[in-house]
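Purpose: get a first structural picture of the assembly so the mutagenesis plan has something to point at.
Setup: two entries, given in the order below. No constraints added.
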Amino acid sequence: MRVSVARLAGATGLRNWIFGLWLIALLAPVAAWAGHPRQLTQVQALVMPDGKPAFAESLQLPYHWDRRNPGQRGFAEFEIPFEMHDPLDRPLAVYVPRLGNAYEIWFNGTLLQKNGDMAEFNGADFAKVPRYLVVPTSLLQQRNLFHIKVRADVGRRGGLSPLFVGPEAKVHPRYVGDYRLRSTGTLVVVVVSLLVGLVALSIWATQRDPTFPGGADGRDALYLNAGLAEICWTISVANAIWDHPPLDWPWWGVLTAGALAAWVGSMTLFCMDVGQWRGRAWARWLHRWVVLEVVATMIAAWWALEAGMPLALTVSYAVMGLTALVFSLAFVIAAFRSASFPQRAVAVALVLNTLVGLRDIYAFRLSQDLAGTTYLRYSSVLFGLVLGYIVVTRFRAVAAQAQELMATLAGRVAQKESELAQSYQKLEQLASERARAQERARVLRDMHDGVGAHISSAIRQLESGRSSQAEVLQTLRDSLDQLKLSIDAMNLPQGDITALLANLRYRLEPRFAASDIELQWDVDVMEPVARLDSQGMRHLQFMLFEALSNVLQHAEATVLRIEASATDGGAVLRIVDNGRGFDVTAPPRKGLASQRERASAMGASVQIASQPGRTVVEIRIG
Amino acid sequence: MWQVLIVEDDPLMRDFFAASIARRSELALAACASTVAEAKAWLDQPEHVVDVLLVDLGLPDGSGLEVIRHAVTLHPGCEPLVISMFGDEENVLASIEAGALGYLHKDSTPDDVAHTILEMKAGASPISPMIARRVLSQFRLMNDRAAAALPQVAPAEPVVSGAPRAELSQREQEVLELISRGYSYAEIARLRAVSVHTVQTHIKNLYRKLAVRSRSEAVFEATQLGLLARPGR
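Result (structure tokens, whole complex):
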């Protein structure tokens, strides 16, 4: 028995070294003991299993109730006599790593400490926290007696560990070191696991990627498994420091055993996701096997804790451990063949946790050691770290992808913009080319019908030698007037007939004055006619000029009247003279033909009514 | 007798205008010039007297506008008339802004030329409906711009208001509107129950305001650009 404890202590020391630097902070006080306090192991015990006769025996601590009374509950009383080696004027410090599940500590007939109900089984569990007390000097004698009573439930690691006694300076550091390792450290692990679990679950719940091949709903099962594993682990580890669990024993024991199995199972599935083994044929079978293990473990736990068959749970744990071991080996081999860093990191964590887990199974299910701690709770933090690493790298990849996408998108937008600008430029170019072509056509027509026509007739007049100088002069003046009107037409506001008439009057006024024709002006103020564009304005100007020229040259009139008024959406213009008139049915003169042509081009109509003393040219627009 | 200076590079046209002037006893030919430099040199002589300037815009060594500005600066009593082929908006407006009080067409008859000069000396200036329209819109535009710019250029205000303000009176605006609609001076006088002479005076005042406006606007803009120091600063 002593040998096995010593070997275990050696193995524990070796593994402490493996766990990594962060554990050193917790373990430092343990290593820094200032000498070893006295350890009391020799006891006289009275064992009272529930429903069985009591018996007395002399034995060595630790007293592991479940090992000595498998499937039993009951009470035990221990008497531990010891002699003081130190002076009596200093208080005696006592440290008990583990006792319970409920207990009373008596010293020389005085009750020093009591926790829990000694009569009621399956209540709160006070064995989880290491106990430290100080015996006042008034109670100290040369020969002393500890009297310790415990109540133990089935499969709840009840009993009594060896006692450490001595001066406070020697005992207290040891207590603090154990306390940190068992309680404070565990609390840290619980908080970390809970946090990691919640983060993983919320990632699973909120992050959907429709292109993800795994789940039909686009969620990544990797996060679900990691989250479940961490939550189960939180329950399982919290059990180690939770005096008052929410469920009565043994149901709480069944639940925590199930949580432990679920942790192992979820972790296995998580590793499969990391290794991308989901598609493998055996993956489904492993999945089922893992679920089966969880159920089997809970049944075995019930069996062990309620029916008193601890071997069932041990076997179940062993099967689970073996499965994990085989899976770990396969995973490790695959990991070191692949180049994926996360997979390798998981493999390292897996190997470490499997080894630690096997050690814990031995320490808790097989050895007689009572006060030990599971180290799995600490080694498991590695999984959380690896998960964090995976999350970070994945998000970094996604962010890089998004950034690349944005860059591509921006590039495309810029390209489209430049294409658009180019086509817009082309359109503008086409429009300006068309405008230029129209303008050229207009100028050509003006030259042809106006200046060109007049100059060529002036040339003909001079060549024939029959025309008078006055006639040639008139032709040339007409030509210059036409030119001025052409230039004015460029600046006329579109559709403004009033402005057009005003300008025409201004240009031709000197000629009316020279011909002694009285001009009567009856022009209303008109809104611009929308349908009259610059081309139309020019046509109208030309038609009016022709009509007025005819009056000037042929009519021999004394009064010329210009009327203009607005009609609905258009205008009507009349040029009335009191000249000699002409036959409107006779073959039309060249000027008149041109008038009609222009009128139809601008969508207007020309009516001419003539009799001696009254000729009316009416132009109706719109 | 009005002393007339002719600045025209085409000898035929120069002779035509000289002959037109010679027909009337009220007019005398002071001198003829065919380039900007020549005209400026003549104007620079203080003993030279000039009442009327006839100037072509397209001269071999520059624009007739330069001669107009030079003349109105050195001889405040001089009234310039621009010789224009077409009487088109751009050239006429630019000339008026430089200080011209009217324009002559190159195809005018000799009687017309003399008549226009004497009319101008009597207080009348010719204006076409299109130019009237353009002047109206320019004054409106300027008023809008001044209204918009006023709040933030308050310090520049003395510069503009220090010079004679170039604003149209109600009556001038009415006259301009009627002209742009094609009414003759006589018709306008009848419609507004004033004399033809009053209408003509309005037009001439308008021309002076245009010249003033263009000058004060140049000062205003130069001040805005920081080319001129603001007085009182």
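Chain A touches chain B at residues 477, 480, 483-484, 487-488, 491-493, 498-499, 501-503, 505-506, 509-510, 521, 523, 525 (CB under 8 Å).
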